[in-house]
Specification:
With 559 residues, the chain is α/β, with parallel strands linked by helices. The protein has 15 helices and 27 strands.
Length: 559
């Protein structure tokens, strides 16, 4: 059995769908959807859900819908609508013309609720929110009926119409489905399906003052759009009986099917929208697009590409339960994507001055260096050599440890694309003892590319010419959280949970000059450091700011 066929057989959603196709369950084409509530930004878990719905629609030659679940005017905003649509398209899952809004179905959903009332399957309840919770019971004890459960159909229709007209204050009445207060599934204990909210909606204005709950609106919206499979994450599994109850009571022909897949979490970060909001509003991070966050905006600003995110999700495959995936796997996907497609530059993050005493003062020399050793198509670049350079502080040790093969007093190393140099003198601050500069000599016979074989050196280091380098700030990122696993409790002490080293800002790094000025989101490999992206938030005409996407070291490959 080839791998593609095995993957198809092993994919439990494919198995369900293939069985339905064989049984002729649907006479309409495949149609899936992603229904975000526009009250926040998408994150890596959202991308997993989008990927699942989109790729299944593609596989079965169907359609993929983006539908905004905008039925709560207190939390939603057009800013989130625009951001979600932009992020989905950037990820490569464009819905084309199939962008819809739950609020556009308000009349249909209201009519469906009225139909349930006429069937004796819904009633207006005057219990307070606290009383509704109390009457619902617990996981071990059944609920008890509301004293308003046996209102007549006529009275319920009249009250529901008055709710719609705005005759009652918020939270004074709700419409509830009449199912079973003794059900072992709490979601079926007469759930609230409509509530009163006196607030302006970003799309419908003040046209409505009653709004449906998601569990009621969702199956109706799916039916209206001709959705065949409502594919959602595992936490909605206990809601499936209510989804099916609504469609059955409304006599929907060929009703859509809800099926669940596992929820994706990443180690070292949080994907809970509630926790993300706490981090943003508590100013523990730099907004929703902070590069330490797993939001799509944060990943994009850090430098992750759509291709790397899709590759990461493909590598995970289809999961059935809630899973925590090592963030190193996402970083590995980024390295694999970038290693052959971005050009290299030499950047010295912690500069140490080097003066080459036997290279003529004022003389410069153009050197040709490969942009990417794994991709000849990226060509070469010209780098200027002079007698005053910067190297990394870590590439010099005055008293070298065993196994240290970089620069040291009397030791020789190769400068990438240039010459051998030897350290002859160390210049220090007389007061502090800090090393200020190294004075070295170079061997003109050792120029790279000349075929010199007279002797060998064990170390090769990068460099920039002091007179031909630009200053830049570099943001170095680590895991946002100190703990490997994300917190699960509602209350989190973020002061102690956030890794204080998750962001290190290094100012005035020295980087070789570019033939063309880099633009926001341009990506490079900083030789011997890792992959970096031009930050679109803080880069200005005067100052370049780079975000480290991932270091070169690949911990996932080791695992």
């Amino acid at each position: 059995m080839n791998n593609d066929r095995k993957a198809e057989v092993d994919h439990f959603l494919y198995k369900i769908i293939n069985e339905d196709i064989q049984a002729g369950v649907f006479s309409r084409p495949m149609c899936t959807r992603f229904p975000p509530e526009p009250n926040g930004y998408l994150h890596i878990g959202s991308a997993y859900a989008i990927h699942t719905n989109y790729t299944i629609a593609q596989k079965y030659n169907g359609k993929f819908h983006l539908r905004f679940d905008d039925t709560n005017p207190l939390k939603e905003d057009i800013e989130y609508v625009r951001a979600i649509a932009e992020d989905i398209i950037w990820l490569g899952y464009s819905p084309g013309n199939h962008i819809y809004y739950g609020s556009d179905y308000s009349n249909d959903i209201y009519a469906a609720a009225a139909a349930l009332i006429r069937k004796g399957k819904a009633y207006v309840c005057d219990l307070s929110p606290e009383e509704v919770t109390e009457y619902r019971g617990t996981l071990t004890e059944p609920g008890k009926n509301s004293p308003y459960r046996d209102r007549s159909i006529e009275e319920n229709l009249d009250l529901f119409e008055k709710m719609k007209k705005g005759d009652f204050p918020a939270a004074s009445k709700v419409l509830r489905a009449k199912i079973d207060m003794g059900s072992p599934n709490i979601n079926l204990r007469d759930p609230v399906i409509y509530r009163i909210i006196h607030a302006e909606h970003y799309r419908t204005g003040k046209e409505w003052c009653i709004y449906p709950m998601y569990d009621f609106a969702h199956p109706i919206q799916d039916a209206i759009e001709g959705i065949t499979y409502s594919l959602c994450s595992i936490e909605f599994k206990d809601h499936r009986p209510l989804y099916e109850w609504v469609l059955q009571e409304l006599d929907i022909k060929e009703p859509p099917k809800q099926r669940e897949f596992g929820r994706l979490n990443l180690t070292g970060v949080v994907t809970s929208k509630r926790f993300l909001r706490q981090l943003v509003e508590g100013e523990f991070v730099d907004g929703w697009d902070d590069p330490r966050l797993p939001t799509i905006r944060g990943l994009r600003r850090r430098g992750f590409t759509p291709e790397s995110i899709r590759s990461f999700i493909d590598e995970i495959g289809m999961i059935r339960a809630q899973n925590s995936v090592d963030i190193a796997m996402l970083e590995h996907a980024a390295r694999q994507d970038l290693k052959a497609r971005v050009g290299g530059v030499m950047a010295v993050i912690h500069p140490l001055k080097v003066v080459i005493t036997n290279y003529p003062d004022g003389q410069t020399e153009p050197l040709s260096i490969d942009n990417n050793s794994e991709n000849e198509a990226l060509g070469k670049r010209e780098v200027t050599f002079s007698n005053t350079l910067y190297i990394e502080k870590d590439d010099f040790m005055e008293e070298p440890a065993k196994g240290f093969h970089r620069l040291a007093p009397g030791a020789e190393v190769r400068l990438i694309g240039a010459y051998f140099i030897k350290c002859e003198e160390v210049v220090k601050d007389e007061t502090t003892g800090e090393i200020l500069e190294l004075r070295c000599t170079y061997d003109p016979q050792t120029k790279s590319g000349t075929g010199f074989t007279g002797r060998k050196v064990k170390g090769t280091i990068h460099w920039v010419s002091a007179g031909h380098a630009a200053k830049a700030d570099v943001h170095l990122y680590e895991n946002l959280l100190l703990d490997y696993e994300a917190p699960k409790d509602g209350m989190v002490d973020w002061e102690s949970a956030v890794n204080p080293s998750s962001l290190v800002v290094v100012k005035d790094c020295m980087i070789e000059t570019f033939a063309e000025k880099p633009r926001a989101e341009d990506k490079f490999q900083f030789v011997r450091h890792g992959y970096f992206c031009v930050d679109k938030k803080y880069t200005t005409d005067e100052k370049l700011v780079f975000n480290r996407i991932v270091p070169l070291k690949d911990t996932w490959r080791k695992k």
